[in-house]
Amino acid sequence: MITTLALDLEGTLISNAMSQIPRPGLHEFLIRCREMFGRVVIYTAIAEPRFRTIAALLANEKAVPAWFADIEYVHWNGETKDLGRIQGVAPADALLVDDLREYVHAGQEAQWVPAPPFVAPYPETDSGLNTVLAELERRLRGT
After folding, report:
1. What is the pTM of this model?
2. What is the 3-state secondary structure (H, E, C) of 56-114?
3. What sign results for the dihedral spanned by CA atoms 18, 19, 24, 30?
4. I need a surface site. Which of 2, 89, 95, 140 has the fewest CB within 10 A?
5. What residue ranges define each of the domains in the chain, with the CATH number in brackets?
6. Phi first, then psi: what are they for 134, rounded to 5°?
7. Cα separation, 71 vs 5, whole angstroms
8. Which pLDDT score is estimated for 25?
Protein backbone atom coordinates (compact mmCIF):
# COMPACT_ATOMS: atom_id res chain seq x y z
CA MET A 1 0.00 0.00 0.00
CA ILE A 2 1.36 3.41 -0.95
CA THR A 3 1.91 5.43 2.23
CA THR A 4 4.79 7.75 1.42
CA LEU A 5 5.38 10.44 -1.18
CA ALA A 6 8.92 11.61 -1.98
CA LEU A 7 9.17 14.97 -3.74
CA ASP A 8 12.01 16.36 -5.79
CA LEU A 9 12.70 20.10 -5.45
CA GLU A 10 14.48 21.62 -8.45
CA GLY A 11 12.58 21.54 -11.73
CA THR A 12 9.64 19.90 -9.96
CA LEU A 13 8.44 22.15 -7.11
CA ILE A 14 10.57 25.22 -7.83
CA SER A 15 12.70 26.53 -10.68
CA ASN A 16 16.10 25.83 -9.11
CA ALA A 17 18.12 26.54 -5.98
CA MET A 18 19.40 29.83 -7.36
CA SER A 19 16.24 31.60 -8.52
CA GLN A 20 13.82 29.65 -6.26
CA ILE A 21 10.71 30.51 -8.28
CA PRO A 22 7.80 28.50 -6.87
CA ARG A 23 5.85 26.53 -9.43
CA PRO A 24 2.27 27.77 -9.94
CA GLY A 25 -0.11 26.00 -7.58
CA LEU A 26 2.68 24.81 -5.27
CA HIS A 27 0.96 25.69 -1.98
CA GLU A 28 -2.26 23.90 -2.91
CA PHE A 29 -0.35 20.96 -4.36
CA LEU A 30 1.52 20.39 -1.09
CA ILE A 31 -1.67 20.63 0.96
CA ARG A 32 -3.32 18.04 -1.25
CA CYS A 33 -0.28 15.74 -1.05
CA ARG A 34 -0.38 15.89 2.74
CA GLU A 35 -4.07 14.94 2.65
CA MET A 36 -3.44 12.01 0.31
CA PHE A 37 -0.34 10.49 1.93
CA GLY A 38 0.50 9.62 5.51
CA ARG A 39 4.06 10.78 4.95
CA VAL A 40 5.53 13.37 2.59
CA VAL A 41 9.32 13.75 2.33
CA ILE A 42 11.74 15.80 0.25
CA TYR A 43 14.31 13.93 -1.86
CA THR A 44 16.65 16.40 -3.56
CA ALA A 45 20.25 16.84 -4.66
CA ILE A 46 20.35 20.08 -2.67
CA ALA A 47 22.23 19.66 0.63
CA GLU A 48 19.95 19.79 3.66
CA PRO A 49 21.21 23.13 5.09
CA ARG A 50 20.64 24.84 1.73
CA PHE A 51 17.25 23.14 1.35
CA ARG A 52 16.18 24.34 4.82
CA THR A 53 17.07 27.92 3.89
CA ILE A 54 15.05 27.67 0.68
CA ALA A 55 12.12 25.98 2.44
CA ALA A 56 12.03 28.65 5.17
CA LEU A 57 12.06 31.41 2.56
CA LEU A 58 9.23 29.77 0.62
CA ALA A 59 7.24 29.36 3.85
CA ASN A 60 7.85 32.99 4.85
CA GLU A 61 6.59 34.06 1.43
CA LYS A 62 3.53 31.78 1.88
CA ALA A 63 4.44 29.95 -1.34
CA VAL A 64 4.28 26.70 0.67
CA PRO A 65 2.46 25.66 3.85
CA ALA A 66 4.39 26.41 7.07
CA TRP A 67 5.04 22.69 7.69
CA PHE A 68 7.16 22.50 4.53
CA ALA A 69 10.03 24.27 6.32
CA ASP A 70 10.30 21.23 8.62
CA ILE A 71 9.51 18.48 6.09
CA GLU A 72 11.42 15.24 6.49
CA TYR A 73 14.58 15.30 4.39
CA VAL A 74 15.97 12.14 2.74
CA HIS A 75 19.74 12.16 2.40
CA TRP A 76 20.69 11.24 -1.15
CA ASN A 77 23.77 9.10 -1.67
CA GLY A 78 24.66 7.71 -5.09
CA GLU A 79 23.56 8.19 -8.66
CA THR A 80 19.83 7.63 -8.19
CA LYS A 81 17.08 8.28 -5.66
CA ASP A 82 16.67 4.90 -4.02
CA LEU A 83 13.34 4.85 -2.19
CA GLY A 84 14.90 2.28 0.13
CA ARG A 85 16.75 5.19 1.77
CA ILE A 86 13.49 6.45 3.27
CA GLN A 87 13.55 5.17 6.85
CA GLY A 88 10.93 2.55 7.70
CA VAL A 89 9.32 2.33 4.24
CA ALA A 90 9.57 -0.41 1.64
CA PRO A 91 10.26 1.06 -1.81
CA ALA A 92 7.00 -0.48 -3.08
CA ASP A 93 5.10 1.61 -0.51
CA ALA A 94 6.45 4.93 -1.77
CA LEU A 95 6.16 7.09 -4.87
CA LEU A 96 8.78 9.50 -6.21
CA VAL A 97 7.71 12.69 -7.98
CA ASP A 98 10.64 13.90 -10.07
CA ASP A 99 11.17 15.63 -13.39
CA LEU A 100 14.27 13.60 -14.29
CA ARG A 101 14.01 9.95 -15.30
CA GLU A 102 17.74 9.39 -14.81
CA TYR A 103 17.35 9.81 -11.03
CA VAL A 104 14.91 6.91 -10.75
CA HIS A 105 16.57 3.92 -9.07
CA ALA A 106 16.76 0.72 -11.14
CA GLY A 107 13.86 -1.55 -10.34
CA GLN A 108 11.75 1.31 -8.97
CA GLU A 109 10.43 2.64 -12.27
CA ALA A 110 6.87 1.73 -11.29
CA GLN A 111 7.19 4.04 -8.27
CA TRP A 112 8.11 7.08 -10.39
CA VAL A 113 5.53 9.76 -11.06
CA PRO A 114 7.01 11.98 -13.79
CA ALA A 115 6.64 15.70 -13.27
CA PRO A 116 6.69 17.86 -16.39
CA PRO A 117 9.91 19.91 -16.04
CA PHE A 118 9.44 23.46 -14.72
CA VAL A 119 11.90 25.38 -16.89
CA ALA A 120 12.59 28.92 -18.07
CA PRO A 121 10.80 31.16 -18.74
CA TYR A 122 8.74 29.64 -15.83
CA PRO A 123 5.29 30.50 -17.16
CA GLU A 124 2.57 31.51 -14.69
CA THR A 125 0.25 29.29 -16.74
CA ASP A 126 2.28 26.16 -15.94
CA SER A 127 -0.06 23.34 -14.86
CA GLY A 128 2.54 20.64 -14.20
CA LEU A 129 1.53 20.13 -10.59
CA ASN A 130 -2.08 19.55 -11.63
CA THR A 131 -0.83 16.86 -14.00
CA VAL A 132 1.11 15.25 -11.15
CA LEU A 133 -1.88 15.42 -8.78
CA ALA A 134 -4.11 13.71 -11.32
CA GLU A 135 -1.57 10.90 -11.68
CA LEU A 136 -1.16 10.56 -7.90
CA GLU A 137 -4.92 10.30 -7.48
CA ARG A 138 -5.11 7.71 -10.27
CA ARG A 139 -2.37 5.61 -8.65
CA LEU A 140 -3.98 5.72 -5.23
CA ARG A 141 -7.27 4.58 -6.77
CA GLY A 142 -5.39 1.72 -8.39
CA THR A 143 -6.60 2.49 -11.90
Report:
1. 0.96
2. HHHHHCCCCCHHHHHCEECCCCCCCECHHHCCCCCHHHEEEEECCHHHECCCCHHHEEE
3. positive
4. 140
5. 4-141 (3.40.50.1000)
6. -60, -40
7. 12
8. 98
